[in-house]
Fold this protein.
Amino acid sequence: MADEPVNQTTQNSTANLKADTPNVKQRRPWRISWIWLVPFVAALVGGSLLVRDWLNTGPTLSITFESAEGLEIDQTKVRYKDVVIGSVSDIDVGPDRSNVIVKAQIDHDAADYIARDGTRFWVVKPRLEMSGVSGLGTLLSGPYIAVDIESDDNQSQPEKYTFEGLEKPPAVTHDRSGTRYVLHAADLGSLEIGSQVYYRQISVGRVIDYELNKDGGSVDIQIFVDSPNDRYVTSDSRFWNASGINVSLGTSGVEVHTGSLSSVIAGGIAFTNVNPANEVPAKPETVFDLFNSETEAKAEPDGPPFRVDMIFHNSVRGLEVGAPVDFRGMELGQVYDIDLEFDTEKRRFYILVKTNIYPRRFGKAYERVKSLDPEDRYPGRQLLGPMVKHGLRAQLKTTNLLTGQQYVSLDIIRDAEPVEFDPMRSPLLIPTIAGSFDRLQEQIMKIVSKIEAVPLEGIGNDLQKSLQSLNRTLNTLNTQVAPQATQALGAAKDALERVDALLANDSAMNENLQSTMRELNGAARSLRNLGDYLQSHPNALITGTPPDRYPQ
């Protein structure tokens, strides 16, 4: 009840107040604030960077290596001529777990010439090889993947995104100017990829590859000679293996030939020109023969050899493959095979020796035979026919008495028995005779046979009987003759003692002999005086001696 007057008073005062007129203001139009430009510009820059990165990003290449040693994701770079053109984005193990697959993100500008067929990849890292040390710069920067393209203009090559990486750096990159050649050798020797090629003791190239020939009987070695030194390689060039140390014993003593220290350690090849007037460079991929020594390389070419067989019925111990075939001190070829064969008609084994003979080593005789039939591929057949008719025979001789090594010697035997020789037989078959050592064995066997024919048993029995008789004689001498000889010696001793007593200085016989000698000496003096007187007075024999005259 107390609150009712208050509420009524308030209502009355409010009713008496008048409402104010509203003031309406027009709203200003909305404007953009400058602060919003910052995120806009940031978004614009970020978008441009994304677009630029997208435009510059090239394809991803897959490179297969045996291992990922030294490679790291987003750290290992891909370089071409030491320019970074990409990086490793991923590394995975291959499906068969025998290798690794490296994903390399390549720049867009480099993809035009990198992602082509013929591109090669390899990992550059420190390597220590016989040919030298490489990749030392990666000790601080870390390994990287190097790239080599086939040519500067390889746009015509098809695109390729999967590659097989090289485990070793290539010996020669495609951007290196020079010429490739092929050397044909019997074996590789001490040569390796990277071995140097020398011309006048100067390194002008290297060995870049080697492989077995198709028939597996030789080795083809590929070398690369740098420009401009490749102009010295002509069709008359001769190559030889300059590896190691060559020691030879000649009439002038021991000779030692060696190349540079690197060629001794890592192997090397040297070449020279036998015809300096020929200045026309050899064409790329020209095939040359690789000789074992400089002497063989500079010798006259032997031409193609032809096979000659020889049959020996005696032992060929000491004869090895590679032994020389000698004709009066001149080597005509080598032995390349020795087989044991069986003669079904004679039912006996024999040794078949196969040799290669070089007919050009016969000199002018070969040239004359060659001129008679230029179409004959092996004119040496016609050359050996007359020689066999005149006694050409093959025999084994010992070249070293200490080691027992033997060689095949061809010589004209004047009293050799005639044999049949077919010059058209393929291969040729040269008749053989027993060697000097074999003949010595035959002579020893004959001597042994003669000794066996001597009745040694009867001689032994007779000798035994003679020795028994001599034994009996010695017993007789010992039992009968020896005592008598002792008595005779005693008597002789007594006689000598008596003779010694007679010849003593104080013996009567010695005094008598002295007096007799004095008398004989006086008589001789008288006779000498008489002779002197008669010589001066020869008439004294008739008139006598004159009387003595006394001095007045």
